[in-house]
Design a protein that fits this description.
By secondary structure, this protein is of the alpha+beta class. It has one domain (about 1-80). The chain has a three-stranded mixed β-sheet with strand order 1-2-3, covered by helices on one side. It contains three helices and three strands, in the order E-E-H-E-H-H.
């Protein structure tokens, strides 16, 4: 999953990887990667991970990628 902040936002662009972190770093250019590449946190830790990167609301692109009830739960947890 890739988090990209809007222009002017204080959101740090981040690439989360679920499977092979080593391979993802290699394919992105190792130290030349455009942003941090880190292991994707578990879903229950995702809201804290997003907040730590500057997100203040649930990323809209996630809405169509997960079941609606999970999206509502996630959205309620991260929204102020």
């Amino acid at each position: 999953m890739i988090l990209i902040g809007a222009e002017g936002a204080d959101v740090e662009n981040t690439h989360w990887v679920r499977k092979s972190l080593r391979r993802a770093k290699f394919e992105s250019g190792d130290d030349n990667a455009p942003g941090p590449i880190i292991a994707q946190p578990r879903m229950r830790q995702m809201t804290d991970a997003l907040r730590s990167l500057g997100a203040t609301s649930a990323p809209a692109m996630l809405a169509g990628k997960m079941p609606h009830d999970r999206w509502q739960y996630f959205s309620r947890r991260i929204s102020p």
